[in-house]
Amino acid sequence: MDNINDKIENNLDYSYFINPLSSRRRPALTRELTKLAYLAPKEAISLAEGMPNESTFPFERFDITMKDGSVMSLKGSTLGAALQYIPTQGYPPLLKTLKDFTLKVHNPPNWNRSDVLITNGSQDGLSKALEMCIQEGEPLLVQNPLYAGIEIIISPVKSKLLPVDQDQYGLNPEELRSTLEDWKEKCLQNESYKMPKMIYINPTGSNPTGTSMTLERKRQIYEICCEYNIIILEDDAYYFLHFLDELVPSFLSMDVQGRVLRFDSFSKVLSSGLRLGWVTGPKQLIQAIELHIQSSTLHSSTLSQVITNNLLQSWGFEKLLEHFDTVSAFYRARRDITIEAMEKHLKGLCEWTIPAGGMFVWIKVHGVTDVYDMLMNRGLKKLITFVPGHAFMADPTKACNYIRASYSKCPPKHIDKAIKILGELIREERELLRIKLENCT
Ligand SMILES: Cc1ncc(COP(=O)(O)O)c(C=O)c1O
Fold first, then answer.
1. pLDDT tens per residue, range 299-339
2. Which CATH code is given to the segment(s) 324-440?
3. E strands, 71-159, where?
4. Is the CB of 123 under 6 A from ligand 1?
């Protein structure tokens, strides 16, 4: 077998991916000095910092009681650090911990040319990565259906979404190739058309379909992206929330060319209110996103970062991974209850793929062309809420007969009831359609 190091071919021209707006960003001297202040020896004297003096803050100590009964205390200099500004890239001890963790889990072949950046959750990183690259009218390849958070980032840019259909193993490589070939043809015919520079993929326990991509698929997609010079946005918010026997290696783990930006998030496994995620990828692209953060939030919440770092330090990676397994087991049990209820109440009315991870099941309704009114009018009146599939389609204006059901928060005893009502709703809708059709003929 080839040594992976022999395959590293990082000669990408990242300026091709960074749009003029992003390339005009320059580092703020004050932010750069904050970075230096963190690295400076203890005896260094600084009159440079524009930070408030934390001794004036009203907080003396934070004690956080954990579920195992232990207490995490933030006091003294740790509390001082938690209440203060930090370098944009992240709280240095957490940044180091996340780099070590990423190296342990993904062992990225291009690690020496990669960097990590802490963000306010994945959504923050994704929006800044897309804003760094996509310009008005330019295309973005997306898995279809897709996480609704992408459409809201790019619709103001008037980007054209190029949807690539999925099956039970996620995005289909053959569909990707044919979408690219068709688009290439259009570009040849019309100069104003441009080839896509990025693809958005949510490979594990995908939102909204619950599907997970196989390793073979990832390899095929990676190769196509190399061929067409495309950056992969690997949004893996549910990576550790999988129901498979083992983790499927990530796109980052096979990225010999430096064309993957990977988005991880603590939202689903520690707390979504902490608002913490991290982006890993080529240094040039990470730096462009960092400069955007310099101009917006300055950095993600220090308090959240310090709490998370203390937790990771006290647990170590083994216990963290054990915790992820516990969280997965919780969702797997909820999934099983949901599928059981669907077998009972929706058989013959709908079809679905059993989720391989995440929190969602994607339901195709038979005999109903559009579920919007059924759910948003009659469904709400019956006090059940499901998301109409439109919310996740590259073209949300088209009729859609899919529904996303989430099994994360609904108590198990209510899941069966909600699915039963959904079954009744679908039967009623089909009856209404039948009567309508009869009246037309
Ligand atoms: C696929 C996907 N990506 C990103 C996010 C955003 O996560 P975060 O809380 O890390 O911003 C979500 C949240 O639901 C999601 O489902």
1. 999 999 999 999 999 999 999 999 999 999 999 999 999 99
2. 3.90.1150.10
3. 71-74, 114-119, 139-144
4. yes
Closest residue by CA, ligand 1 atom 6: 123
Report how far ligand 1's centroid is from the alpha carbon of 392 (Å): 13
Residue whose CA lies nearest to ligand 1 atom number 7: 122
Confidence at 10, pLDDT banded by 50, 70, 90: low
Q: Which pLDDT band holds residue 208 (cuts at 50, 70, 90)? A: very high
Q: Which ligand 1 atom lies nearest to the CA of residue 124? A: 11
Is residue 277 lining ligand 1, measured as CB closer than 6 Å?
yes
> Angle, to 10 degrees, between the axis of helix 173-189 and the axis of helix 215-227?
20
- What is the atom index within ligand 1 of the atom nearest the CA of 206? 1
Let me know if domain 4-18+87-318 sits in CATH 3.30.1440.10.
no
Tokens of 318: 């083994």
Domain ranges of the chain: 4-18+87-318, 324-440
The residue whose CA has the least distance to atom 12 of ligand 1 is 237
| pLDDT tens-digit series, residues 92-151 | 999 999 999 999 999 999 999 999 999 999 999 999 999 999 999 999 999 999 999 999
How far apart (Å, rounded) are the C-alpha atoms in residues 102 and 251? 13
Any ligand 1 atom below 6 A from CB of 235: yes
**Ligand 1 centroid, distance to 77 Cα (angstroms):** 33
pLDDT tens across 401-434, in order? 999 999 999 999 999 999 999 999 999 999 999 9
pLDDT above 70 (res 4): no
Long-range contacts of 386-392 (CB under 8 A, 24+ apart): 386/418, 386/422, 387/208, 389/145, 389/208, 389/362, 391/148, 391/208, 392/145, 392/146, 392/147, 392/148, 392/207, 392/208
